[in-house]
Design brief:
349 residues; alpha+beta; name from scop; four-stranded mixed beta sheet; 4 strands; elongated; membrane; T3SS_substrate_exporter_C; transmembrane; Translocation protein in type III secretion system, RhcU; T3SS_substrate_exporter
Length: 349
């Protein structure tokens, strides 16, 4: 069987246990398009909102640098270094922080948290195997990635063309207007391109989440042998389970089958008696541990009374319990509610 297992078709969906194990090892579905789109959108929004402050910081740094050219080097250094530090604090550091936060948020959304595992960075020989590389190149995922790249490039060209056509007029009119119009012309030319690019990344990202999830679940599919092996590990070997049930049944049918160990005795006067045992944390359901009829009825009832066992006259229920339940077995499900109500009513459960 072990020689044939690798050739089996993976036709069964991945079990919850296999998905949990994969997540523990850091293997989860992700969407790089969505992560990139959210990071670009966050960075763009930050730049738009902070642009006046960043422009002022740049202008201040340029002015200080220009003034520093007329003083000695030591004095220039004390002038320029604080200005450059202020520029980095106002521009680069916040932008990096926004991008990192956006990437973490996007990964938490796509992966339902951030799975931490060292398995994905452990060196493994199969990762450098030539055949595995060929399989990856010609895999279904690679095909989808190639098609996605073509679609995204085509849409990006459309957005670029539309932005150029939209901003061409203001750019052509800028020289005649003068320096004051350059800012407005640049905004008119590049803002549509920026917005279009951000929307393109976001629009491509949301469908990619579902696509990557489908590809991941397809990759995680199981063979019938895998599923059977997993069930054996979770539930135990069927032979062992059967042996445990037999030992349990034998233990009930042995020393414990005594009316004096009953929790309650159901009596059909002059006909039969059924001794039931129910102890919390010992028996999951009432067990028939004694049954008496005919000449033995009086003797067994006397033993039960001497042991202080509660005897309840309920001919119909006594007959059904004694008739439907093998000695040493749990009562049938059809009688469980009725017997449970009786035990609760008399304070026995």
């Amino acid at each position: 069987m072990s020689d044939q297992q690798p050739t089996e078709e993976k036709s069964l969906p991945a079990s919850p246990r296999k998905l949990r194990e994969a997540r523990r090892k850091g293997r989860v579905s992700g969407s790089q398009d969505f992560v990139t789109g959210l990071a670009v959108a966050a960075a763009t929004l930050f730049l738009v909102l902070r642009w006046p402050h960043m422009l002022a910081a740049w202008q201040h740094a340029v002015d200080v640098t220009a003034d520093a050219t007329t003083v000695p080097f030591a004095a220039a250094e004390t002038m320029v270094n604080p200005a450059l530090a202020s520029l980095a604090t106002a521009t680069a550091l916040p932008l990096v922080a926004v991008i990192v936060a956006a990437v973490m948020l996007a990964n938490m959304i796509v992966k339902s948290g951030i799975p931490l595992s060292a398995e994905s960075i452990k060196p493994k020989l199969e990762r450098v195997h030539p055949m595995n590389g060929l399989k990856l190149i010609f895999s279904l995922k690679s095909l989808f990635e190639f098609l996605k790249s073509i679609v995204k490039a085509s849409l990006l060209l459309v957005v670029l063309g539309a932005a150029i056509l939209y901003g061409l007029g203001p750019l052509m009119a800028a020289p005649a207007c003068g320096v004051l119009c350059l800012g407005a012309a640049a905004a008119a030319a590049f803002l549509p391109l920026l917005i279009g690019g951000v929307l393109l990344f976001l629009v491509a990202g949301f469908p990619d989440i579902a696509l990557q999830r489908w590809l991941f679940l397809r990759q995680m599919r199981m063979t019938r042998s895998e599923l059977k092996h997993e069930r054996k590990e979770e539930e135990g070997n069927p032979l062992f389970r059967r042996a445990r049930r037999e030992r349990h049944r034998e233990s009930l049918a042995g020393a414990r089958l005594d009316i004096t160990r009953s929790t309650v005795v159901l009596l059909a006067p002059g006909e039969l008696a059924a001794g039931l045992r129910f102890v919390a944390n010992e028996t999951p359901a009432p067990v028939l541990i004694a049954r008496a009829a005919g000449a033995a009825l009086a003797t067994e009832l006397a033993r039960a009374r001497d042991a202080g066992i509660m005897i309840l006259e309920d001919p119909d229920l006594a007959r059904r319990v004694a008739g439907r339940t093998p000695l040493g077995s749990f009562i049938p499900k059809s009688l469980f509610n009725e017997v449970a109500a009786l035990l609760v009513r008399h304070g026995l459960a």
